[in-house]
Amino acid sequence: MKQENQIEFFRKALKLYASLQISLELCTDIKNSPFVKNSLKAKINNLEKQLELDIRPYVNKLYDKDEEAFQVIQNSIEMIRDNSLEEIVDWAIEMSNLAETN
User: Fold this and answer.
1) What is the C-alpha separation between 33 and 48, in angstroms, rounded?
2) Distances (CA, A) of 32 to 21, 53, 61, 92, 101
3) What's this model's pTM, rounded to 2 decimal places?
4) Can you say whether residue 36 is alpha, beta or left, with left for phi > 0 and alpha for psi between -120 and 50 degrees?
5) Does residue 58 carry a pLDDT above 80?
6) How far is 44 from 97, CA to CA, in rounded Å?
7) What is the 3-state secondary structure (H, E, C) of 33-45?
8) What is the DSSP annotation of the chain?
9) Would you kindly state where each structural domain of the chain is located, as residue ranges?
10) Which pLDDT score, from 0 to 100, does residue 1 have?
11) What is the mean pLDDT of residues 55-63?
């Protein structure tokens, strides 16, 4: 694989990891809600377990290769997880405006 393709693959893998991690965190929140049926809770549990098994080796490689990049990604995941939807939208607008001025 060409180096350009490897870099693009790595970027996509990082985005996938971040998306999956956020999804796992939100699934945990949802499955603990009294509004969710037990059958859905079981499906969420199975999905969480499978995704953790599938992505864990890649996460470990990223952490071993570049701990600082891993921490930046982890902090971003926590920011999304811990903020309201409105705060996330405001943050995205700020980032977009910043990108336009640069």
Assistant:
1) 16
2) 17, 22, 31, 28, 42
3) 0.59
4) beta
5) no
6) 37
7) CCCCCHHHHHHHH
8) --HHHHHHHHHHHHHHHHHHHHHHHHHHHHHTSTTS-HHHHHHHHHHHHHHHHHHHHHHHHHHHH-HHHHHHHHHHHHHHHHS-HHHHHHHHHHHHHHHHH-
9) 3-101
10) 66
11) 76
Question: What would the two tokens of residue 8 be?
Answer: 């693009």
| The two structure tokens encoding residue 2 | 């060409």
How many Cα atoms sit within 13 Å of 24 on the Cβ side?
19
Mean pLDDT for all residues in the chain: 82
Burial environment of residue 94 by CB neighbours within 10 A (0 to 12, 13 to 18, 19 or more): exposed
* Euclidean distance between CA atoms 44 and 77, whole angstroms: 19
